[in-house]
Structures are given as structure tokens and as C-alpha cells.
Amino acid sequence: MTVTDRLLPPTQAIEIILREVRRLPVEVVPLAEAGDRVLAEPLVADQDLPPFPAATMDGFAVIHDDTSPWREIIADQFAGQVVDVEVTPGTAARITTGAPLPRGADAVVPVERTEVRDDHVIILQDDVRPGENVRPVGADLRRGEVLIPAGTVIGPAEIGLLASLGRAQVAVSRRPRVSVLSTGDELVDPDQEPGPGQIRDSNRFSLVVAARRAGADVVWSGRGPDDAESLRRVLLERCAESDVVLTSGGVSVGEKDLITRILDDIGTVHFRRLFMKPGKPFHFASVGQAYVFGLPGNPVSAIVGFEILVATALRAMTGQQPVLPRPVTVVLEHDVESGDRIEYQRGVVWADGEGVLRARNTGSQSSARLMSLIGANAFLLIPPRDRLYRAGERVRAIIREPIEGQPEGDGGWEPGG
Amino acid sequence: MTVTDRLLPPTQAIEIILREVRRLPVEVVPLAEAGDRVLAEPLVADQDLPPFPAATMDGFAVIHDDTSPWREIIADQFAGQVVDVEVTPGTAARITTGAPLPRGADAVVPVERTEVRDDHVIILQDDVRPGENVRPVGADLRRGEVLIPAGTVIGPAEIGLLASLGRAQVAVSRRPRVSVLSTGDELVDPDQEPGPGQIRDSNRFSLVVAARRAGADVVWSGRGPDDAESLRRVLLERCAESDVVLTSGGVSVGEKDLITRILDDIGTVHFRRLFMKPGKPFHFASVGQAYVFGLPGNPVSAIVGFEILVATALRAMTGQQPVLPRPVTVVLEHDVESGDRIEYQRGVVWADGEGVLRARNTGSQSSARLMSLIGANAFLLIPPRDRLYRAGERVRAIIREPIEGQPEGDGGWEPGG
């Protein structure tokens, strides 16, 4: 039995995917377009920030151990406007947050602790420490420091750092070009009324949203034709124009499972079936320079298969780190029956008042029941042990969304508020 | 002292924001454009799904208590192609996953448990239960059931449900139109070399990415002019063309804090200062139909202020539910000094092997140090009690990203794999 026919555990399937997929090329984009892209090179500080000692409060720049009862105001030092003065004993300079400390000064007294009389200021604070309310050179970052590792998704803080360091152009991984193709005689478009035995195509829409959320550029989506020859032509065309082609349907063992046969014919199939639930039939193939993921037709299987396997491939192709999520441990709130395959149950995980993660599933776990994904912020990983996991037992879970406190919490939103 | 001058706890500031902001209008978009939008009306099932009893496996549709040693294959029932046959004792119909069960049949035997000889099939499974491998009518959803509450962000599962129910058009909240304006004499663009006392503008880029991630349509971003009259004109123009204007800088108590004075002049200021760290100076004002958030110039203060207050306003404006995150409880890994204001420390939260959430902060919490946000998946909420919080004590945290297991975990990625 070859690897392609074995029921593969998801870990082995992921190993194969990570071995097969290649990194996409790097491209340089203007800073303003770098948001949510994957940084291709580490960001290393090529300078100290701040480059000058800067005030952290609005107030007066002084010499900390100057004991003069009042001081002459010799300058106004605003951020962005440098005056060349020197603070000496008996003098002070007005200064605003972020402005450079004038020569001679070594501390800033906040405006609330001063009293201004004409061109003089009285310092009302008894004890001024050297460096008080001053951000020294290099306090925020030091030349040579690795600030952001390659493979990081560029969010608000990352783009802010890139801007601070003058990176007007940023090297990022090209977005994966993805095509989404649903197959199946029984499918009609959402605006059509299904006839006897027909259902509306939902996977195409689900997979487009999932692919965009994973950072892909969805270049095409549609329903595949019913006959083998046209489907083969569409698939070849999509593979020529995409990095990744997602199909749904046509991969189980029935006679009309066209995708299976076409992939065997036009490409190299790496595996076909997974030892997981939902999503046992799952093809992964190379066709030319493209990768084809043949997802199951069941809507839940398609989404779970995307998140566990396809999203991993996309992260690997863009060099995103970490490439795999690290599961957490959670305490079950109710009994869960395990099956004959590893099960990715859709669940809700929250933290109780002691900070312990607790989990329940979302009810019936049928792989056609999209409702099992609504409100599910986690996949509960139920090992294939054919036994009951009891309420109070611990299992592992992959978290999909930020978790929250328990719904029946104390209601307070902030501490000490 | 009016409310605008008091140091407001963040909870009170949020109450004011939620009282002031109005819901944006609802618009109807094609299904394919509904991803990541906020659903404006609950999705209620207007039909049962599946609408017919459907096979969940490829195999043969049979009568469960038929004891015939072999059965005539009377039809091929593919998904999407309904044949009008009736399964009677001594007969069976070939059937594929998702196809409707023919009349008379009440169970499906998987193809692996059958043996086909010419036009006959032998059922190798001893005991067939009625309904086995059949999804009954309404198993996935029942007419009248509320499937998705209004205010839900439309993800892969939600759009799949909308498609399944034939919603080719979807009512969603209009995206908030947001303008982003940085102010400050000391700022230069990222491609410019800062002169003495100058720094590069980073907040504009951070706030654009943050606003987009929060679902906004960023209609404009730029640096404000230095003189009061031009700045006032730009601000009025932005307010006329935006639902929300974000400014950064110009809000502390120094003499050049232009935004404070302009907002007083052109609009109604609801509050100016918050009892929180970072982000004490923080303005919220109404100018015509627009809301202005005057964020501090410090990069960390701007991002934290955005996430805690502006993102909340945007959720309220689009009707997103829940509007506020529920903090979790976490165990501190190290001592943390509390200050005189509620502090939103940037931190890393993970779950240990027992499922307990543990937290550390990201080092120096200076509000100019963007590095404190890199890798921070949470804000640790440190109450203003002027005491040391010790390692092992519990505090609360707002989780920003999906949490993971501890880095030094057992390395296993799946159970039983």
C-alpha cells in the first residue's frame, strides 16, 4: 500500500505538505501597503531610538541638583524645533513631550509641579532625580537589535517600527494566488432554487473567505463543470494561473468522484485520505507548479480541512512563523465520546475565574452541520481511543479566536474601575 | 470640574462612547462580498436542511431489516440526480454521499461492507440499524431556528450558512469611513531623514492597519499641517467626509497642543483625559456627524487607545456583538509593580500543561517603546494600587490573539498521532 492510499494521521500529512511546498518569491512593497503581509527579512535596528534624550512630560528642563529658588526661562523647546541653548544653574527651558533635552539639563519637572511668574519658573518639587522624565538615547531600541523576526505578519506595532526606522519600502512574501472550485452535480448557485436531490453550493463562499483571512489573493472562484473533460480543462487552467487550487467535493470513493481520477491523471498525488474526522477524504497533489488541495464536499470537513492543512501550507509558502499552532490543554465540561479517528470537535473554550481553560463542544458534530462551527473558537482534539472522555478530564485544543472570560463572570470589565 | 476635565476611568469613557455613537446604516451586498462584514439581521432558517433524507456515505440504500442473501441493484442514485425508484425487499440502490435516499429505503450500507456481483449486491454487514448512514430531513437545521445572531462578523461558516439558505444578497452594516491624521512639528515622513529633534511619523501607519483590521474603510490618511488655521481646515474637511477621524499627537497640556484647542472650537468634547496608562491624554469629541478620537502621540498609547476605545466605538457603530471583550484571569509569572493609574501592560499569555493561563509582560512598558507590543497577545490589566503584584498572583487580561500552549510543551501537535 503506497502512502497515497493509506489513512494518514494529520501530523504525517502536514509533514508531507511542509516537505513539498516551496517558498513564494519575495516582493518589495511601499510601507503603506505592507499591513497584514508577511515580513520576508528580519527588521534590525540600524540606529538608536530615540536618537536624542527626550522629555517624556510637558514641563521644564532643569539641572536636577540645582537648588536655585527660582530660575530664568531661557528657551522654549518644542518637539521638532531644536534651540541651541545650554541650561545652567539658575536657568530652565520650557519643554514639551518628545522634545530633545537641551544641553546641560538632566531632568524634566512636569508643568503641574511648577509655577511660572513672568519670565521665571519656581520648581515646586522637592527632590528631582537625575534622568527624571527623560528617555535616554536608545531607550526604545538599540542599534543592531533584532526587532521583528522574518515570518511575522505585519500588524499595527510592526508597521509602526518599520516607519520609525525609515523603511519606506518593505520586503514581504508574495501573497499566494488561490483559485476555489466547487464540484458536484448536485450543486446549484445560492440564487437558484434547488431541484429534487440538489443543494446550494456553500463551500465556494466559505473557502474564499477562509483563504482571504489566511492572507491569500483569491484570483478566481467558481463551480466546476459536470463532465470530466471540461473539469479537467478548468483544473489545468486554474493550476497554470494559481499557486494553490482548492477543490471541494468529488474525492470520496463513489463512482462519480471525478477529482480523484483527474488528479491521478494530470499530477502527482501525495496523499488521498486522512485518519481524521471530519475530513477523511482529502487529496493533496502537485500539478505543474501548483498545489491542489482536494477538500471533501461536506461543508464542515472543507472548513476544518482548510484550517488544519491548507492554512498550514499557506503559512509555509509565505514563510510565516510559527507554521503550526501549539495546542493548549483544556478541561472538558461534559462527557465526549471518542471515535475511530482523531476528531476535531468544534468547541467553545473560555477561562474560568481561576484562569483554567474550560471547554464544551457545539452540539451535534455531523460534518454537514455548519452550525457546529458557529461560535466555535476552538477545535477540541479527541484522540481515537473508542472510550468516553469524562467531564473534568483534560484534552487538547487548537484555539482559533481570542478567548474570553466565563460568560457568568463578575461583569466587571476593568480592575479597580 | 466638568466631565471633560476629569481623569476618567476607561469604563466610564466607554460608557460615554457607547452613549454617543450611533449605528451606521445597513446596506445590502452580494453574498460574495459579505465576508468579514457585520451581519445586520439575524439569519433565521426558512427551511429544513437537508430538505430530503440524504446518504452520509457512498454505498447501497437498503431496507434495514431485509434479510435477502443478495439484492438486485435497481438504480444508481447520485447526488443531484434523482431517480424515481422504490427500494423493495430483495433490491438495493447504489448511492453516493449527499444523494437523496430513494423511497422505501431506510438505511445505507457503506460500499466497503458490500460485494457487487454483476447486477447484484451482497450485504456483508450483519446488523443494519434503521436510519444508519442517513441524515434525516432537518438534521442540520430546522425551519424557524435562529442560526446566526445579528452583529456577527461573517466568517467562513457564516457565509456558508447564508449560501446554503439561498441568501444571494445580505444585509450588513456599512463599513465605518475612517480618516487618520498625524500631527506634530517634530514628525517627518518615513522616507525622510529626521533633522535635529525630529522623529519619523509611525502612528499614521499603525492606525491605518489597526482601523482596517477593525473592519473600517480607511478613506484618507496623512500628516496634518503645522499651523492652526490649516489644521483646523483639514480637520473640518475630514469630519465632513468620515464617520470617524483619528488624530494622533497634539493632545497633552503643552502650549502647542493644537488638536485640543481646535476640537474645543469646532465640536463638542466629551472627555479629554483618561485614568489609564498608557494613554492619559485622550480626546473624544463630536464634530458634525463625525466622531473624533484624539489619540496621544506616543506610539504605544495610540495603539492601546485604539484597541481599548476606538475599536469598541467601531463595534458599536456596526452593531457588532459582543461590543466589549470579557477579560480572563491569568497567573503572573513575575512580579509587576502597579502605578497610580490602571495600566494596560503588554503581555504574553499562554496555557500551561494543566490548562492554567500564565502571563508575563514584554519588558519595559515605556509608552514610546513599540517593542513592548511585538509578540504581545494580551493586555495585562494592572490595578492602580501602588503595590507590587507578586509572581503567582492572579490579575485580569484582555486577550488580543489566539493563545497557544507553553513553548516548552511536550512538542506533540495532535493527540494519538
UniProtKB/TrEMBL annotation, chains A, B:
InterPro entries found in the cross-reference section: MoaB/Mog-like_dom_sf, MoaB/Mog_dom, MoCF_biosynth_CS, MoeA-like, MoeA_C_domain_IV, MoeA_C_domain_IV_sf, MoeA_linker/N, MoeA_linker/N_sf
Protein family per UniProt: Belongs to the MoeA family.
Metabolic or biological pathway: Cofactor biosynthesis; molybdopterin biosynthesis
Reactions mediated catalytically: adenylyl-molybdopterin + molybdate = Mo-molybdopterin + AMP + H(+)
PANTHER family for this protein: GEPHYRIN, MOLYBDOPTERIN BIOSYNTHESIS PROTEIN
Segments passing through the bilayer: none
Keyword Metal-binding carried by entry: yes
Enzyme class: transferase
Upper lineage: Bacteria, Pseudomonadati, Thermomicrobiota, Thermomicrobia, Thermomicrobiales
Residue span, MoaB/Mog domain: 179-316
Organism: Thermalbibacter longus
Molecular functions per Gene Ontology: metal ion binding; molybdopterin molybdotransferase activity
UniProt keyword list: Magnesium, Metal-binding, Molybdenum, Molybdenum cofactor biosynthesis, Transferase
Described function: Catalyzes the insertion of molybdate into adenylated molybdopterin with the concomitant release of AMP.
Co-factor requirement: Mg(2+)
Protein name, per record: Molybdopterin molybdenumtransferase
EC numbers for this chain: 2.10.1.1
One Gene Ontology cellular component annotation held by this UniProt entry: cytosol
One Gene Ontology biological process: Mo-molybdopterin cofactor biosynthetic process
